[in-house]
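Why do we care about 3D structure at all? Because function follows from shape, and shape follows, mostly, from sequence. That is the central idea of this module. The next example makes it concrete: a single protein chain, its amino acid sequence, and then its structure expressed as tokens.
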Amino acid sequence: MTTPRRKRRTKRERERFLAALANPVTPGGVGPRVVQVPRNLLAVDPADYCSSLLAMQLADEWTEYVAATAIGTHARNYQQAIDCFCRYVDKVLGPGAEGASLADPDLLDTLVTWELSLPEGKAPGSTHPYLMATSLRVLVIRRDDHPDRVVAPALARLARGPALLGSGEKMERDEFTRQEKRAMVRAAWKSAHATRKRLDDGWALVEQGRHPDEGSWTSVPDLLWGLAHEKIVVDDFRRFLPGPREWPLELLEFTAGPGKVPYPQTARRQLARRLFASLYPTTLDLHAFRVLLMDATGYTSEEVTGFGEADVEFLPKGVRLTLLKNRAGRLRHRAFRDQSPPGAPAPDGDGGGQLTVNWPRREASEVVRQLMDLTARVRTKAPHVTDTLFVSAGVRPDYTTVFDQWNPGSSGGRFSDWLAAIDVKVKGDQHIGRLRKSVKVEKAIVTEGRISAAADDHTEETFASHYAQGTTLRTLSGRTIATAQQHWFDKALDRVDGPTVISGTGDIDQDLLEDSGLSAQEAEDIMTGQLDMGVSHCKDPYQSPFSRPGELCAVAPLRCLECRNAWILPSNLPQLLLFQAHLERLRTLLDPQVFTRLWGQSWVNLDAVLHDRLPEELAQARKHIEASRADLDLPLAAHTEFDA
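And the structure:
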């Protein structure tokens, strides 16, 4: 008997809250404070607390604040803060809580200890304690701003002062992987088609039925006919429908599925919901259209579910939507083309705002058409809902029917429930916001990482702080950075790659040079000495990496050991030894850091060239030097170094 009493009490409370909403309590009056947010009633009843005066003061500010700011579902945060604080005051002050008031300076210590106790029992880094503390402070500050409402100065200073708690660490949701997103979109189309077929079949059965009094209360077509033509109501099932044991097999399978039997206690309500689902879209059905619209347009869940029939204009090859983002207070007109022919002109706007043409990969117009057609009957039964196409029908536990705005957070109709129903498995949090991030990532990839293009519906700062943190973009950014680094590293190596060395004790002829990669003319010029630069031969002194193309190299022979055009033959060995002696003298004169900056690369390359020579070759080269048959001609500036 406990469950029925609880249901009756809950129903009475709802009726009382609806009455309080219709006739609001004046500030300071007796009674519950109630606010209505999308799909929910939120209430604070001061009578629930020993600190009723304190709860009344905070609740008055709460109701006025919600009405003034239209904060929507965030109103729940303030309700929870009031409830949490008042219960804490009741616990700490005991009987003294009856006199607790924001005008009492003695409440300061209690408020401070409450704030500091909020992290208890929460996960490290949780944002909830800070949210509760700041929500309550907003209400205290608002009350202090009223000249006729007294707040103790100490409490006002605390509320306006720095926070006692850290804000916590908010974990950004990662986007769905491309495979997960592709599976969701594919399943969404299948779900949309299945919903359309189910409704078509249901209305086809309506044509076969008649009034259950004339036909049968256990006939599916007759029951559908009665509900569709509003000749019967769901509550009639409890009076005229026989018990499940007397139902025919067809009705049992329609209610519970093939091979299943419904529970006798809930069979009538389950049947009513199945009948309604055969005539009108359910909460679970509309998740597919939200997914398809977010994928086709790239906009948020709030925007794609927040436009009504008046906000839709079909174009010859697309659709124009008026999208409202409540959080940012922005109204946008967006035209979505079915195809993206290059150079196609944008349609003219209507003067209500700047029109932007988007080129989606999928046809948004087809999704909107199907959604409008699917929800047409529900919208005619819910004329009070004009700001959205997302409307659904349902049967409440008390056998009443409801045609109202879609509630994706209802029990059994959440996004996670839809994923389970379509058998799509995703890793991590099952939140629709991750799909928005997936679309933004794709846009960033298509626009080659241009933030201004990817952040076309919010600021670049928002994109950088909120959307650019996803795994895909981090991976792509890492690859881009690595590619750029490798590019410049390769260019640097290409610039200082050093000379090509021809070693060996045998004769060096033109054929050998040509086999090593030189052209016939270059090999001939080297063999005849026309390209001798002092310490090496040069493949092309007019294409030096150290000078402008077409100009004669201006740094030979000082930088030949750092040049990719240099070719070192065995005959250059004496000059290389002389150049080594020159560099050794500079090492004794210059600061090590300066020598490394000026001559480090030449010294490393020269050491590598000489290290590969045989001792006999080095000895023979030194004999040439001693016999004064080898000279090293260096510019005059090479003998003067400035340590700067």
